[in-house]
Amino acid sequence: MTERPTYLSAFIDAHCTAARALPKSSIKAFFEKCHQALKEDTGEVDGSDKKELPPVCEYLEAALSVASQTSAPIKNVGHTFEAIAQKLPWQPRLDYKDQTDDFYNGHANAVIIGEGGLESHRKVRVGASLIAPNVEYPNHRHPPEEGYLVISEGEWRQEANPWLARKSGETIHNPPNIWHAMKAGNKPLLAIWMLWMETDS
Ligand SMILES: [Fe+2]
After folding, report:
1. From the CA of 24, how far away is ligand 1's center (Å)?
2. How close is the Cα of 56 to the center of ligand 1, in Å?
3. Separation of 174 CA from ligand 1 center, angstroms?
4. What's the 141 CA to ligand 1 centre distance in angstroms?
5. Is residue 201 part of a domain?
6. How many domains does the chain have?
7. What are 77-110's pLDDT values in tens digits?
8. What are phi and psi of 38, to 5 degrees?
9. Residue 2: its pLDDT value, please?
10. How far apart are CA 166 and CA 153, in angstroms?
11. Is a pLDDT exceeding 60 seen at residue 69?
12. Angstrom distance (rounded) from CA 133 to CA 115
């Protein structure tokens, strides 16, 4: 097994500790399954330089300062994320091409672990989404089950249900293929997501 660099293991450990503090729930069980898979297996580490940071990354500092005002475990997720944020391959949604509009310039996603990230992994993909204030990330869906850990607050919606506000340290659990969207209010939205990529379990 390849050795995971400290900057990544510190981030995963922090996420694990934050998840352990959650009340018993389906999202807690989902995170536990992902953490177990990440613990059992380390992929190839990609140390190459990533692209330039897109404009929305100017909001990273403000988003992380929200985390620094919450619980110790979330503060630590924020600290360990800050240590890797500049290394990440931030990019707008790949299927979105209109480079002139507010959404294109007001959001970015980055894979941390998984294809295209800092480390490959067969079972789990971990990443981050950053959304500028007052920008909405439109409906999307995907086969993998997904769990978000909110670092800086925003609102989430599943299917045609009402928008739900989620603060730093709270979570959202998306079953496979559910339509979901998110939007930032007057603060930037930052969330860490985990996707379960294995289809045969
Ligand atoms: Fe998603």
Report:
1. 22
2. 19
3. 7
4. 6
5. no
6. 1
7. 999 999 999 999 999 987 777 777 888 889 999 9
8. -70, -30
9. 72
10. 6
11. yes
12. 28
What are the phi and psi torsion angles at 83 (to 5°)? Answer: -70, -20
**Cα-to-chain-centroid distance, residue 103:** 18
Percent of the chain at pLDDT exceeding 90: 82
Q: Establish how many alpha carbons lie within 13 A of residue 99's alpha carbon, considering only the half-sphere containing its beta carbon.
A: 3
Enter the tokens of residue 92: 């707008």
Work out the burial of residue 61: count CB atoms within 10 Å of its CB; fewer than 13 is exposed, 13-18 middle, 19 or more buried. Answer: exposed
Q: How far apart are CA 34 and CA 126, in angstroms?
A: 9
Classify residue 1: in a domain, yes or no. no
Q: Distance, CA 145 to ligand 1 centroid (Å)?
A: 9
The CA 146 to ligand 1 mean position distance, Å, reads 6
Could you give the 3-state DSSP secondary structure of residue 73? helix
- Residue 61 maps to a domain: yes
- Cα(5)–Cα(10) distance, integer angstroms: 9
Element spanning 154, H or E: strand 154-158
CA distance 109 to 126: 11
CATH of the domain at 90: 2.60.120.10
The domain containing residue 155 runs over which residues? 6-196
* Measured distance CA(25)–CA(18) in Å, rounded: 14
Identity of residue 113: I
Ligand 1: distance of its center to the CA of 144 in Å?
Answer: 9
Structure tokens at 143: 């086969």
